[in-house]
Automatic annotation (TrEMBL):
Record Gene3D superfamilies: 3.40.50.2300
Keyword DNA-binding found: yes
Record-given protein name: DNA-binding NarL/FixJ family response regulator
Keywords, ordered alphabetically: DNA-binding, Phosphoprotein
Biological process terms in GO annotation: phosphorelay signal transduction system; regulation of DNA-templated transcription
PROSITE patterns, A to Z: HTH_LUXR_1 (PS00622), HTH_LUXR_2 (PS50043), RESPONSE_REGULATORY (PS50110)
Domain of life: Bacteria
Domain Response regulatory, chain residue ranges per copy: 9-125
Organism of derivation: Massilia aurea
Key word Hydrolase present: no
GO MF: DNA binding
Domain HTH luxR-type intervals: 141-206
Pfam families for this protein: GerE, Response_reg
Amino acid sequence: MHQRTAPITILIADDHPLMREGIAAVIHSQADMQVVGEAADGNEAVALYRTLRPDVTLIDLQMPNLNGMEAIVAIRAEFPQACLAILTTFRGDARAMQAIKSGAQGYLLKSSLRKELTDAIRVLAGGHRYIPAEIAGELARHLGHETLTVRELQVLELTARGNGNKEIGRLLTLSEDTVKGHLRSIMDKLGANNRTHAVTIGIERGFLEI
């Protein structure tokens, strides 16, 4: 079996300096890994990837200028073989599925970085996907379920902000009956008892950002 001799090169993209420092410290403790660059936003991540071509890129989901998902799409369009992993606090299956569809091979929860980070990097560098067991379980649990449409997501988001049906209708140029129809569909798809429950599930599964 061919043994890797060069260290795994890693680019870290996160808008929080302390998070970048923490990740870099864990990586620096490993003899077979090397941080080659750090980006503070999505645009910087794309530019640094272009220059450095790292083996693995860790990208925060929420960043200014270009978010993690947009940065992944941009890098993937230019470099189809890029190895990209999302860093996030979101445990929801909807966000994970969106990241995978955007081209991420990994999905790492910030809460378990210290424990899983180095293992995940080695798995990713070896050309495999890395999805934590709890996220994989959530994805499997909701596999085959109908996803929310763009319009339903808009209605759910406005509901989460405390708007009533009439106000949602005004903001989206829809009749009140149409809004009610969308809410019924949302509750049905999410298995919610009422609109408040639908918002709670929407947050848990990652359809809504908080």
